[in-house]
Design goal:
The complex is a heterodimer of chains A (278) and B (104). The longest helix of chain A has 16 residues. In chain A, helix 2 runs antiparallel to helix 4. Chain A has a five-stranded antiparallel sheet with strand order 1-7-3-9-2. In chain A, strands 6-4-8 form a three-stranded antiparallel sheet, with no helix packed on it. With 278 residues, chain A is α+β, with helices and mostly antiparallel strands. Chain A has eight helices and nine strands. Chain A starts with 10 loop residues before the first helix and ends with a helix. Chain B is mainly β. In chain B, 6% of the residues lie in helices and 34% in strands. Classes of the chains: A alpha+beta (278), B mainly beta (104). Strand 5 of chain A pairs antiparallel with strand 4 of chain B, so a sheet runs across the interface.
Chain lengths: 278, 104
């Protein structure tokens, strides 16, 4: 299916991504596909062996490869990434032929009682361009299994990796509780932490990071780009940053200008006022 | 019971351990709403971790003070560097409180 025929995200969904730092797609993957990917993860087919070489004989992808070369159609993950609804989400956020960055299967053992500290991945990264991280929840994940907790709206803050490890709880923090096949797509800067797995079964979440290979400009279905509800979406308050909410809104407006190419876009006169130097 | 250097019994001497409570507020005003919280327990009697509670232990620093917590650090209010006026990072209004707990 070509990029022109993929089901792309709407402008309202992009605005939610800009404001919240993530989008969630419940049960996006068909059950059979999710089970197949889970089986591949469990069998180590997406992991290197002890020597760093490929475990299953399939060549390991290298950071910098184009995604279509990194995972072929003969691989389960390759079929997952070509599943049109998911391919459309990827194309809407990072464009065609994105760059493979890395992947990791997070397997949390049964009765693992500790949570991961809050952190953002990689390092402090204040680009306007953004990577996405796809979090695949391949089986039903009730709260007690400890699905990844996200902090909505945290993605545009300048912190480095574990700088935020001393924080424990925020108003509005959001644990992932979901059914099998759910995919959460995050901005590279979002604060998150794994939660304790209090069940008798291991928990698996597969993560894949992608970089854009094109300028992220109007990559989605922009038919509703002038929808008035977008202003409300971009100004939502996640309740954990108090009087800094107005600074967060300014940062979101700047990112929205970047992805729409509309250098004069504004909400509530916030940026226009600052740019007024008659 | 412990004995002082002069040999008198001192029932008031105890063994204490420190608990630290980090409260981030919506504004620098000590009565403003708590938006983020962490607790570290030096007594070893409780274990806290990321994501373990949905509601803060107190609604404000002032409320914690009224419950016996002592403020040991207040946030320094600073002017942002030129060109970084709208940057955000760590929560700005973080107060650190302590409580000493007798563990005898």
């Amino acid at each position: 299916m070509s990029a022109a025929t993929l089901p792309l995200l709407s402008s309202k969904q992009l605005a939610a991504f800009v404001a919240d730092g993530f989008l969630r797609f419940d049960a996006l993957l068909p059950d059979a596909l999710a089970r197949e990917l889970l089986a591949d993860v469990a069998a180590g087919k997406l992991a290197a062996d002890a020597t760093g070489g490929p475990h299953s004989g399939a060549p390991l992808p290298r950071a910098g490869m184009r995604l279509e070369a990194a995972f072929g159609e003969q691989q389960v993950l390759g079929r997952v990434l070509r599943f049109p609804p998911l391919a459309g989400i990827i194309a809407s956020l990072v464009g065609p032929s994105p760059i493979y960055d890395h992947h990791h299967a997070h397997v949390i053992a049964a009765r693992q009682a500790w949570s991961q500290p809050w952190h953002a991945d990689a390092i402090l990264d204040a680009r306007m361009a953004f990577d996405i991280q796809l979090f695949f929840f391949l089986h039903d994940t009730p709260r007690e299994m400890g699905g990844t907790m996200l902090l909505p709206g945290s993605h545009l803050r300048r912190i480095n990796e574990s700088d935020v490890a001393r924080y424990q709880n925020f108003r509005g923090q959001l644990a992932t509780v979901c059914s099998a096949g759910t995919v959460v797509v995050c901005h590279h800067g979002i604060w998150h932490c794994g939660q304790p797995n209090l069940t008798d079964r291991s928990r698996t979440m597969f993560k894949l990071r992608l970089n854009p290979s094109v300028r992220q400009l109007r990559l989605w279905n922009t038919a509703d780009v002038d929808d008035p509800s977008i202003a409300e979406i971009l100004t939502r308050d996640h309740q954990w940053y108090g009087s800094e909410v107005r600074l967060e809104i300014v940062k979101r407006i700047k990112l929205w200008r970047h992805v729409t190419g509309n250098a004069r876009f504004d909400v509530g006169h916030w940026l226009t006022r600052l740019e007024n130097e008659p | 019971m412990r004995f002082s250097a002069c040999g008198f019994a001192c029932k008031t001497w105890g063994v204490t351990r420190q608990q630290l409570l980090f409260l981030s507020l919506a504004t620098p005003h000590l009565g403003s709403r708590v938006v983020a919280w962490s607790m570290f327990d030096g007594t070893g009697r409780s274990q806290t971790m990321a994501g373990d509670s949905a509601e803060p232990p107190y609604e404000s620093v002032l409320a914690a003070m009224k419950d016996g917590w002592r403020v040991i650090q207040v946030p320094v209010l600073h002017v942002p560097p030129v060109g970084q006026e709208h940057e955000t990072g760590f929560l700005r209004f973080e107060y650190v409180l302590e409580r000493l707990v007798d563990v005898r």
